[in-house]
Structures are given as structure tokens and as C-alpha cells.
Amino acid sequence: MEPVAVALSGGVDSLRAALLLREMGHEVKGLHMRLLPPSPGGRWSTEEALEEREGALRNVASRFGIDVNVIDCRDLFEQMVIQPFLNAYLGGLTPNPCVTCNPQVKFPIILREAVNLGVYTMATGHYARVSPPDDNSDRYRLFRGLDVGKDQSYFLFGLTQEQLAGTLFPLGGRTKREVLHWARSMGLEREIPRESQEICFIPRGGYQEFLMERHPADTDTARGPILDRAGNVLGEHKGLFAYTIGQRRGLGIASTAPLYVLELDVSANAVRVGSAVDLDRPELTAAGVNWVSIMPREAPLRCSVKIRHQHQPAPALVTPLSTDRVRIVFDSPQRAVTPGQAAVFYDGEMLVGGGIIERFRMHTPTPSSAGSPP
Questions:
Q1: Can you give the pLDDT at residue 51?
Q2: CB count, 10 Å around CB of 288?
Q3: Segment holding 105, helix H or strand E
């Protein structure tokens, strides 16, 4: 069978994907992307830590007869993922770096390096499925992974037809429980790092500290008012980057009823807050839309839409406004629609497409001069 280049992250999923392919008769070539740049002072990542991690990966892979080639992608990752992530937060958005990394960094680089090795197919440990063209469609189609709780198709909505054509997802029809059971049976618990739910380049999960470390001048002068829906000043925020839609804790406001972040108003440098019911939104617009499993549409279509990875898909009408922009109107209002996150739409198990949620205005009040920040 044809050789396959497997993107080995150092975790159990990608290793299991590689060995499943080998069990099927494929020759497997391991590729590991070096992505994490040392930050000022080495607080978040050091060369020694990277070398230790890569050494552990090589040791585990060699146990199964897999050689690992390391690709240094740090400059590109910094340019295409880290800086846009930081700029988005400074601009009052809540980005998801994985939806950028997959189509713009990970998949194109692994496919390119695979070709350099004489290999024309790659694989990852994502829990998703892809189907080739058939009598019903001339496109490659992306589907949810069998494991509903682990499905990662949401992060892959930006993939192109060319990328899908050259990619295998060996874990798409398996569950995380199966993979963990296999790892335990092989005695790999101590050798493979514990899976993290955090952003890969912020391993401690403290994105605010990471941002302040990288952009001290921008974050030191970022304070502004916290306003209610009527425009009254309730307090002072420490920078739009420190808040996200739906946030309740950490506002520093004395109130008889719970208050939630409703909007990050960049033009006024204001955080607008209100009650829980104010978080519900009936619609949104999304830009940068990539039509994955179907051709770009002109007519509206019924879909179920996820507005963040852990969101339960909600029935909606998706109406194209242009080839890469849509309006999504939900059957029932959805809580905490967040600009900068991805809105991904499905037809049953099939991922139809997705885009990035655009900014919106809750209202346009005139801030009151009554009341001042404490």
C-alpha cells in the first residue's frame, strides 16, 4: 500500500493513528512540527523543553519502528497563528487559533514535507472522517468523528478540497476510550504527555499573561469604562483583551443581580454588560466562509450550527450574502454568540462549511456621565 506521512504531535492520538495505518499495510513516515517559540525570558517555552519533548516523542516512536523528522515551523507559526491571535484579542475578538493553524500551517506544511519524502498522502490524529467523491458528489466531504464527545471536525472547516484529498483520519471511526484503552495496554501512560485542553502555545492556559508579556505597552494603556445597556458607567475594565462574551466573574462590579459581558465595544473601548437574558441572540453574520462538502451556495439552506467547539449544534437557516459571507438565523436564540469564534454548519453528520463570527452591536447608547469608575 502507499506510504503515508503522519503528523506526530507527541500525544497518544497521533501515535495510534500512525500504528493503525501500519497495521493496514502502509509504510509510515513520522513528521513532527516544531511550533512553539521561546517567549521573552523563556517563561512559556525553552529550547531545552522543546528538545526534551521531541526526544520523548522519538523514543516512543522508535519503540514502534517509526522514524520522526522534525520540521521547524516556528517563524511561520508566529506569523500566521500567534500574532493574529494576539492582535484579535487586542481588538476585542475571541479567536480560536486551531481553526487558523490547520488550513494555513499544519496541513499545507505536512503535505509539502510529505511530497519532499516522495509521499502524497498525510494523516493526523483528528477525530473526523472524510469521504471521497462518488456518484452523489464530486467533492471530498468532511464528516463528524464517530465519537460525539471528541469530534474535532469543527477545527477543520477551513480545509480545502486539495487538503482533504490528500488526508486520512484513521481515528474518525473510533472513540477516545478505545484509544486510551490501547495506550494503557501498551504501557504508554507515563511516556506520552497528558492531553491538554489549552492553547498549544500557552501551555499554562494564561492567555492574558501571555498577551501582556508580548504586548506590555498595548495592555498597560488599555483600560476603559464598563457600561450597562443604558450607557451608565458601572466600573473600569483592565483591557478588552481580558474579557469575553458571556463572562460573569472578574468584572469587579457590585450589583444586586448577576451581570454578564454582552459586548466588547472597540470604538468606545468599553465593556458592555447586562443580564443573562441579554446574552441570547437570534442571528449572526460570519465572514471568511469556506464551503467544504458542497459548492458555494446562493440559496438559503437549513443546517445545524455550532458557534463554538462545545456548543450543541442549533437548527438555523444559513443565507449566503456573498461567496464567503453568510447570515445565520437560529430557530431559537443562542446564548453568548462571540465575535472571533467560528460558526460551523452541518447537514446531519456532514460538515457543510464554516466562517468567523463578525462583530455586532447590542445597542448604541450614549454613555452617561453619571457615575465614575471606582
A1: 78
A2: 14
A3: none
The three grid cell numbers given for residue 113, joined into one nine-digit string: 514535507
As annotated, the active-site residues are 101, 200
Give the length of the chain. Answer: 374
- List, for residues 127-171, the tens digit of each pLDDT value: 999 999 999 999 999 999 999 999 999 999 999 999 999 999 999
d(CA 275, CA 254): 14
Beta-bridge partner residues of 272: 227, 263
Quick one: cell of 370?
A: 453619571
Domain count, the chain: 3
Radius of gyration of the chain (CA): 22
Can you give the CATH number for the domain in which 353 is found?
A: 2.40.30.10
Residue 342: inside a domain: yes
**Per-residue pLDDT reduced to its tens digit, 2-53:** 999 999 988 899 999 999 999 999 999 999 999 876 655 444 456 777 777 7
As a whole number of angstroms, the distance between CA 193 and CA 68 comes to 17
Lowest pLDDT segment from 74-78, 219-223, 275-279, 300-304: 219-223
Query: Pick from 203, 186, 196, 197: which is nearest to 60 by CA?
Result: 186
SS3 289: strand
Task: State the helix-helix crossing angle for 47-63 and 12-23, rounded to 10 degrees.
Answer: 30
User: Are 172 and 311 in the same domain?
Assistant: no
Q: What integer best gives the mean pLDDT of the chain?
A: 90
Grid coordinates in use for 320?
Answer: 449566503
Can you give the pTM of this predicted structure?
0.91
Q: Locate 219 and state its grid cell.
A: 495592555
Is residue 251 located within the same domain as residue 146?
Answer: no
Q: Do 88 and 106 reside in the same domain of the chain?
A: yes
Q: Is residue 202 in some structural domain?
A: no
369 falls within a domain: no
Cell numbers standing for residue 41: 525570558
Query: Do 232 and 159 share a domain, yes or no?
Result: no
Range of the domain at 299: 280-357
Q: Does residue 129 share a domain with residue 101?
A: yes
